[in-house]
Write a structure and sequence with these properties.
This protein has 3 helices and 2 strands; from the N terminus they run E-H-H-H-E. The two termini are 29 Å apart. It is flat and about 40 Å long. Helices cover 37% and strands 12% of the residues.
């Protein structure tokens, strides 16, 4: 995204193909989350809220805002069934 925001140029996307197995959790987020919370804190929140993806996203975003709140934060979470 940072390659394209506000620019009128051709970009080369970074594509990563990662296999995901049944039962695994998936978290996609912007740097607003990872710049606000360290990995250990994110993992702690995931472990305590992993039963409900909506609640997990809300908790990650609210914690990022409380602890830093300097950047827009987007979070998508789910699990593979």
């Amino acid at each position: 995204m940072t390659q394209a925001l506000g620019l009128n140029v051709n970009i080369q996307p970074h594509i990563v193909d990662t296999p995901i197995s049944r039962g695994e959790n998936v978290l996609l987020c912007t740097d607003g989350l990872t710049d606000s919370l360290d990995l250990a804190r994110i993992e702690q929140i995931i472990r305590n809220n992993c039963q409900n993806p909506k609640v997990l996203c809300e908790k990650l975003i609210s914690t990022a805002i409380e602890e830093c709140g300097e950047d827009d934060t987007t979070v998508i979470a789910g699990y593979v069934v």
